[in-house]
Amino acid sequence: MDVVTCDLCDAHPDAVRVLDLPLRDFGGRAAFAGIVSTVHALEDNSRVREAVAEAGAGRVLVIDGGGSTRRSMLGDLLAEQAVANGWAGVVVHGVIRDSLAIGQLDLGVKALGTVPLKTDKRGQGVRDVPVCFGGVTIRPGDWLAADADGVLVADRPLV
């Protein structure tokens, strides 16, 4: 899918919500789009593990890790599982690890940065709830598009 966020913003200025956050690209897929599924958890990626184990069907997993840079919410093993199960991408309001390996995968990944420390697995967090970060509320079932210029969200697919 050729996703160009600038063109989408120009064509649908009243339909898009643009994240105001300095996310960096880490995945091997530069541009991606899909229906949103969410995880809200702080420094515990147990719910992320559950999500990527399911059929992605081209969806985008949005992880609200509270912006924490202390523990990684996604590593290469979970990213590989996301690819194997058909997820289009992952957006992390937090950090990832294994960035070189993730960069080799056909998966869009955006995050604030990296840290080598993994999370504790305490079974905490919730799935498919609205999350708010970067000045935007993102709901399960929203449509998200991302490329080198940024991330936008809309109530419906725009392409």
Automatic annotation (TrEMBL):
Keywords from the named record: Lyase, Metal-binding
Enzyme Commission no: 4.1.1.112, 4.1.3.17
Organism domain of life: Bacteria
EC class (word): lyase
SUPFAM superfamilies to which the protein is assigned, alphabetical: RraA-like (SSF89562)
Cofactor(s), by name: a divalent metal cation
Catalytic activity field: oxaloacetate + H(+) = pyruvate + CO2; 4-hydroxy-4-methyl-2-oxoglutarate = 2 pyruvate
UniProt family annotation: Belongs to the class II aldolase/RraA-like family.
Subunit details: Homotrimer.
PANTHER family: 4-HYDROXY-4-METHYL-2-OXOGLUTARATE ALDOLASE 3-RELATED (PTHR33254)
Function: Catalyzes the aldol cleavage of 4-hydroxy-4-methyl-2-oxoglutarate (HMG) into 2 molecules of pyruvate. Also contains a secondary oxaloacetate (OAA) decarboxylase activity due to the common pyruvate enolate transition state formed following C-C bond cleavage in the retro-aldol and decarboxylation reactions.
Name assigned to this protein: 4-hydroxy-4-methyl-2-oxoglutarate aldolase
